[in-house]
Design a protein that fits this description.
Elements (H helix, E strand, L loop, with lengths): L24 H16 L4 E3 L9 E4 L12 E11 L3 E8 L2 E11 L1 E7 L5 E7 H14 L10 H20 L1
């Protein structure tokens, strides 16, 4: 089931999410809904707080090559356990901040640990778009948006535009 994506500014996007203690069928269904929502948007990542659920859950699929097989990842309680000193700059966007993009500098490579939808511990070294995306989504779980990496003036400008967009959408 497709879910609504919260738009910035929304106080739920600034909250720290609770760890997932036990996997339930409801949480697995939420993960499946989030993948459907992400693909429909379309996006390469989505975090639970973006659909109004304050749990440590993210979904990703950074395969963008035409004709390549999708690689959906469902991550419960994801955490970066190591990161490179080398950095990358990517132009990031966010489904909660549509049509706004900015360059963000992050570690180029990260080692991530998480629990999959079956409750199995997973670990993977990620680089490129995968590394950027997983860090961006984990930031959401800590109440941090890519805007928080920007200079105050640019952050305020985007936030003002988003407030205006939300007002227009509310008017219908």
């Amino acid at each position: 089931m497709k879910r609504s994506i919260l738009l910035h500014p929304d106080p739920r996007l600034k909250k720290t999410c609770a760890a997932v203690p036990d996997l339930t069928d409801d949480l697995r269904a939420l993960a499946d809904d989030m993948l459907e929502t992400m693909y429909d948007a379309p996006g390469v990542g989505l975090a639970a707080p973006q659909v109004g659920v304050l749990h440590r859950l993210v979904v990703l699929d950074c395969v963008k090559e035409e004709g390549a097989a999708a690689r959906p990842l469902i991550m419960f309680n994801p955490e970066v356990i190591a990161s490179s000193d080398e950095t990358n700059v990517y132009e990031e966007g966010c489904l909660s901040i549509p049509e706004h993009f900015a360059d963000v500098t992050r570690p180029a490579m990260v080692q991530v640990r998480w629990m999959d939808r079956d409750g199995n511990a997973q670990s993977e070294e990620m680089d490129g778009l995968w590394a950027t995306c997983v860090q961006h989504e984990i930031d959401h779980l800590d109440g941090k948006l890519f805007l928080d990496y920007l200079k105050p003036l640019k952050r305020q400008m985007i936030t003002r535009k988003m407030v205006k967009l939300k007002r227009e959408l509310a008017r219908g």
